[in-house]
Specification:
Strand order of the largest sheet: 1-2-3-4-5-6
Number of helices: 8
Number of domains: 1
Structural class: alpha/beta
Strand content: 15-25%
Largest sheet: 6 strands, mixed
Shape: globular
């Protein structure tokens, strides 16, 4: 009887949870997990491109400072605080403690990169696009620091095209152009643009 009672209590507790939790919350959690996975795939994709161009992935500051061509992922070793101290940057994002994805070093140049993958707009996706646009508005005193917003997926092609657009898409395009004019050291890139940027850079 005790076992049946426990099973029954567990069933009703689970049923109650499902009845009370709004469907929108569940979808938001699913979207969040999906975007994290896609973001991680974006990181790996960029690292793979860089490795083919001769960059080495490093795990510590000693190697980062020693090598001319390398890439590191934001982590406990490459935390926001450590990056600010070692690169003498502020990373003044509206979201305090905002963690980017990659740091790329080529000779005296440093690229701080946020990578996302989106196929559609709406809901959580619009928030992610806003975060990428915000990155373009960041600026450091030293001219060798660039911020890169990398967007992979079909929505990246829509944003970069000259196709007809509704108000939301028009606003996104307008903001991207505005911040790129304001901060010419920064970049908004898709996969082809990323590959071309670092391929051209390493020719010199």
């Amino acid at each position: 009887m005790d076992l049946i009672k426990k099973i029954t209590q567990k069933y009703f507790s689970k049923r109650l949870l499902n009845d009370l939790v709004p469907e929108e919350w569940i979808q938001a959690i699913l979207d969040s997990n999906s975007s994290r996975k896609k973001g991680k795939c974006g990181e790996l994709k960029l690292i793979s491109i860089l490795k083919r161009l001769g960059f080495k992935e490093v795990k510590n500051w000693k190697d980062f400072n020693k090598l001319n061509k390398c890439v590191a992922r934001f982590s406990k070793v490459f935390s926001i605080k450590k990056v600010q101290e070692n690169l003498n940057v502020k990373i003044k994002a509206k979201k305090q403690g905002k963690k980017l994805d990659l740091i790329v070093k080529y000779k005296n140049k440093r690229f701080l990169i946020e990578a996302k993958h989106l196929n559609t707009s709406g809901g959580g996706q619009d928030k992610q696009i806003s975060e990428l646009i915000e990155i373009l508005n960041l600026k450091e005193k030293t001219p060798n620091i660039s911020y890169v917003s990398f967007l992979d997926g079909s929505y990246s092609n829509i944003l970069l095209s000259n196709s007809k657009a509704g108000d939301k898409l028009k606003t996104q395009r307008k903001e991207i152009k505005k911040y790129l004019r304001k901060n010419p050291n920064n970049y908004w890139l898709n996969t082809a643009g990323f590959r071309n940027l670092f391929s051209d850079l390493t020719k010199f």
